[in-house]
């Protein structure tokens, strides 16, 4: 306890002016770290540069301090940053992981203020990323800076892992998944690890995991004036997603522990994006793709969900005639042509 108190005394309170200054720089980059490929591919190194400006003066690479900094990049302009303050005992470690340097999209016309610059309203800090998650990036960067400045004697090493590509995983091998694959986070298993990320303003001790999914639907292209000769993939997709959702909520209903731990919502499965190859308004397309996510509370198994989703699709494909149709000529099977609509989860 004495060592802990001494560390707290050495670190002191958060330097609010320094924190707000850094956060302002990060929010100023938020327009360029929106993550929604292929239209918006973030450049997390814009954030990395500001964090490095803060920490390099206290690093071994400049000779200015004890911080060991590793800038790890798998894709151009999309870096991760691992920062370590070494402790005195080799096998003791404490880590903060998950401070991600990308943000979800923001349409300025939907905001009452500029989302891509930091503004202050009373005690509120406003801008895209203040809570998810550039605020956490700034906060933990300030913590590591303070460690580098004050150099307290700690038994445990303190590691901060600032990651790329958290908000969208459609481009793999960029962020924490690649770091884990390369073994760069293996030593964090030796001690407590805190995942620092929340999309709300209240303290968070647990959150729902995210499973992205993409359902490709195949129908039959034909002129919309002769819909009885087509298999409409839009109609097929809507009915399939409805059926998958009904089965999901039956198999993964609200869990009693969600109320105990204060979860705002139970596990959910829903569509969030829709795409198709294009064509005229008088043409029923041959295919479309529906994408979305599962938000799973930690009281259910991810592997169980993945297995169930695949089972749902296989069963619907086998019994596609049983799906509800839409109108007198809507159909998902064309027996004379030996054609059936079909679904498949794709990467």
From TrEMBL:
Superkingdom classification of source: Eukaryota
Protein name listed in UniProt: Acetylornithine deacetylase
Amino-acid biosynthesis recorded as keyword: yes
Cofactors, names only: Co(2+); Zn(2+)
Peptidase M20 dimerisation domain span: 205-319
A molecular function (GO) term: acetylornithine deacetylase activity
Alphabetized UniProt keyword annotations: Amino-acid biosynthesis, Arginine biosynthesis, Cobalt, Hydrolase, Metal-binding, Zinc
Subunit (UniProt): Homodimer.
Reaction catalyzed: N(2)-acetyl-L-ornithine + H2O = L-ornithine + acetate
